[in-house]
Amino acid sequence: MIGPVGAVPTPSAGNERLRVLLAVEQLRRELPGGIGRYAVGLLDGLRDLESAEPVATRSSPLLSLLVSRAPGIGGAREDPLAPWGLPIRTSRLPSRLLTRAWDRGLAVAPSGFDVVHAVSLAFPPVRHEVGPAGRPIPALSVIVHDVAWRLFPEATTSRGRSWHEAALRRALERADALIVPSEPVADELRKLGGRGPITVVPLGSDHLPAPDDVTTQALLRRYGITGGYLLTAGTLEPRKNLDRLFAAYRTARPSMPEPWPLVVVGPKGWGGSAPGPPPTTSGLPNGVIPVGQVSDGVLAGLYAGARLFAYVPLTEGYGLPPVEAMTFGVPVLVSTGVPSAEVSAGAPQAAVRVDPLDVDAMAQGLLAAATDEALRAELIAAGTQLAAGRTWAEVARGTVAVWRSLS
Description:
The chain has helices at 33-51, 95-103, 148-151, 158-174, 183-192, 213-222, 242-252, 296-305, 320-327, 359-371, 373-388, 392-405; strands at residues 19-23, 62-67, 88-90, 115-118, 129-130, 136-137, 139-143, 177-180, 198-200, 230-233, 262-265, 288-292, 308-311, 332-335, 352-354. The protein starts with 18 loop residues before the first strand and ends with a helix. It folds into two domains: 19-204 and 391-405, Rossmann fold, CATH 3.40.50.2000; 213-388, Glycogen Phosphorylase B (Rossmann fold). It is α/β, with parallel strands linked by helices. Helix content is 35%, strand content 14%. A seven-stranded parallel beta sheet has the order 3-2-1-4-7-8-9, with helices on both faces. The chain has a six-stranded parallel beta sheet with strand order 12-11-10-13-14-15, with helices on both faces. The chain is built from twelve helices and 15 strands.
């Protein structure tokens, strides 16, 4: 533990450790989603960096967390922030009201920090003061995960588009530094301008536990799956392009040596077409089996046992599930809108890449990645190598470098 809950640090100077306030409001949400995964991964990576340093010469940042009032105080639900043992600055406002207050400038970040870092576009305004080096403190850094609402507005709610557009404008105007997970997102932001530099920090993939084989096999038996299967995972919403993936699977399935089912993992997002777990499978092609949201141990088990992993969204700022699958040695098929699986020129392909709008190409890709053993071996080797370099410790190291550039 770095300090008592509620402790207020004083700004650092010279070579002293940075005081960083992390706005991790996403972890208060019932479904934290991909942003929550980033927040947890960053916290784990920062903890790993600190534990690797000798105590006498420790230079990693001093961290505090900023969140809304905890829901269900006195209930049985464990506070998701507890595992890190960090000081917590808690607003008196509940989650939704706090975000609105930040958006309207009615609530600001607490003082006494060198850097305030937001894990999403829901970030608090800061009141700048002049630091020892003449730089404003606290500095504000914000990660922008994607600009999907701009690229495919029809796959986002009108309310979501409005909020994200306004929040992005605020980030461009106010943030001293922007962090993005991929070059495509950086390119989109450069077109818009902004007051701070943009730094690409790819996400980590070493967060899943060892497979929970017992529970995974029980789940598969529950749905009558006794052999091989294909897998896809992610929040079930229009941007994930599941309708086209299902159409491609329906086309490819008769040509497969076995009628491998397509297992669909993930919570429902917005949009009425997202399937629920069986027995509600009306309208889905034969062999498509949604199982809903699963634990991380079961997700790891499903990755490890899959014949291939398919992930074909219309667009992604990064696309974490394919790299998760690669860590378990699974051949991967992705759409061209997924930056996480890109490799440098001349390097072996780490995934079969297809146009997210081309169902026929998607079907051919499914067949190739499921049946071509030479291709599968190439994908497994290249994917495993790519995933090995994507750790949350590296994410933390890159993020800290951005923070230090601001102090």
